[in-house]
Design brief:
Elements: H1 2-33, H2 37-75, H3 81-98, E1 109-119, E2 138-139, E3 142-143, E4 151-164, E5 175-192, H4 197-205, E6 217-232, E7 239-254, E8 263-278, E9 281-292, E10 303-313
Antiparallel strand pairs: 1-4, 1-10, 2-3, 4-5, 5-6, 6-7, 7-8, 8-9, 9-10
Helix pairs in contact: 1-2
């Protein structure tokens, strides 16, 4: 198309130049015709024929250019820039509407838990660890001696903070969370924290002058604060199991040990699962084993806890 246009333009320019050169000659012939009519009749005729032929070619070229211009306008109409932008925006909106809707989940959680606890052995402590001769292991049905309760109940709460969605690139849909948890555990209610009235009477008969017995009772309990990594599987599913490979915990015991020690560090291992029941509301169950790093002045906190929890996503 470009070659044809160039050829036409060159043809038009040539024809125009030819006309410009020939026209003065034609005018000269017309002027001499008045004086030499007979002699110029034979020479003027060819000049007029050339001019007419060139004019015919020019008109033909003009008609061809007009036809080509009309054909090009019809084939490639001008596109408005604003119209193109609007069409592109409409296509983008259509693609967005056609894309599947992905529900955004809240990966963090606050949970409230409670359940049953059991100690591996007697805990020990300051609840009259010495049995007074002549009194025995109980006075008026109340046990004396070291703490022997093993069963307990607990309640607590905690937070899960999401750290990673693919186990740091090792496994898809496997979330890594940081758990911060605290709970209160109660083993039982004991008798007097000290010598009972019967024990005081026996001791005084031996020549001692002890004050009145301590009639206050002591509750054997424990507070636990723990921080643990939690690996949660099946991200995006309503049912999600999880494990705690190992976590750190510190226990505050009451009554204290025989040496008046109240802190006992340890580790915890756990597994559980939760289920999304509605929007960001979850229910779950878990079991954990608590391992003390060592006996702290006669106090032992090793044992298991098992129960359920209610979670709120945020």
């Amino acid at each position: 198309m470009t070659f044809k246009k160039t050829k036409l333009v060159l043809g038009i320019a040539t024809a125009t130049l030819t006309i410009a050169l020939v026209s003065p000659q034609a005018m000269a012939h017309k002027s001499s015709k008045k004086h030499h009519h007979h002699s110029s009749s034979h020479t003027a005729q060819p000049s007029y024929s050339k001019v007419d032929a060139l004019e015919s070619q020019v008109r033909m070229m003009q008609d061809q250019i007009a036809a080509l211009t009309a054909a090009q306008t019809t084939a490639t109409p001008a596109v408005d820039v604003d119209t193109a932008k609007v069409e592109e925006l409409d296509q983008w909106m259509a693609s967005v509407k056609a894309a599947p809707v992905i529900e955004k989940t809240k990966d963090n959680m606050m949970f409230f838990r409670g359940g049953y606890g059991h100690a591996n052995g007697t805990r020990g402590g300051t609840l009259d660890p010495t049995v007074v001769p002549g009194v025995g292991a109980s006075v008026n049905g109340v046990a004396v001696g070291s703490i022997a309760d093993k069963d307990a109940w607990y309640m607590g709460a905690g937070f899960d903070f999401s750290l990673n969605n693919n186990l740091f690139g090792l496994m898809d849909n496997t979330e890594v969370l940081a758990e911060l948890m605290f709970d209160y555990k109660e083993l039982g209610r004991r008798g007097q924290n000290g010598l009972s009235p019967a024990e005081v009477g026996v001791v005084n008969t031996l020549g001692f002058n002890l004050p009145a017995a301590n009639t206050k009772t002591a509750t054997v309990n424990q507070f636990t604060l723990a921080a643990s990594p939690k690996i949660k599987f099946m991200k995006g599913s309503s049912f999600r199991p999880w494990i705690i490979p190992v976590g750190f915990e510190i226990n505050v015991v009451s009554p204290p040990s025989d040496a008046i020690t109240v802190l006992s560090p340890g580790m915890q291992f756990g597994l559980g699962a939760d289920y999304k029941i509605w929007k960001d509301l979850y229910v779950g169950a878990d079991a954990r084993y608590h391992q003390q790093l060592g006996s702290v002045d006669g106090v032992r906190t090793n044992g298991v806890t098992a129960g359920g929890y209610l979670g709120l996503g945020f």
